[in-house]
Amino acid sequence: MQPTPLATCPCSVVVFASGRGSNFAALLKAQQRGKLPIRIRALLSDKPTAPALLLAENAGVAAAALSPRDYPDRASFDRALFARAAEFSPDLIVLAGFMRVIDAAVIDRWRGKIINIHPSLLPKYPGLRTHQRVLEAGDTQHGASVHFVTAELDGGPPIAQVRLPVLPGDTATTLAARLLPLEHRLLVAAVGLFAQRRVELGAHGVEIDGRVMTTPLCMTDDGMLAAN
Ligand code: GRF
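# 5-O-phosphono-beta-D-ribofuranosylamine complex -> structure
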């Protein structure tokens, strides 16, 4: 399939973030530099104090927080959050440090339109404390994954991964610090593929250029995504 021309059809994106928003900032920067055929329409958060909200406001991107405490249960909150996102007619919702499990029924309605960045080489280490768990297991490699979101926590099919070696003396802090810039590049590259309509979630898994992928794409040192 041909890439979609930048100027005529930018992919409409809404980002969900709970915290500092460095992945959101990386997407925004790539958009502003004309390197990504996307238009970030809004930043939504579950945390009214999330620094990501300020980043969005300062960049002139619509920003809003909904507080889970204002809703009777998780499903009601998620329905409200996604209803808010739907106001921006997104082609894609990016979970970029969004620290909540989303209701399965809500996710099903958005199948193939939500991706998440996770700091581990999935299927290893879904959930929290990934850097620490890598060290405790004695792994020699760590990394990050961008995957389509399904009802299973961090369990949806991966699109692309980036790897980095674990070095002697590494701590969870040093590992996280070395991984973060790679996460930014990985997320930008994966969103780029989606925006160019080159990657999608088909009936049999992730498809790249119309073919089902058996292993996730791997980010090379020059920031390109290559088949494994
Ligand atoms: C990233 O490490 C991301 O992989 C994880 O949460 C962190 C968010 O960082 N899900 P930021 O808010 O994008 O700076």
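# post-check
The radius of gyration is 17 Å.
The CA atoms of residues 6 and 228 lie 28 Å apart.
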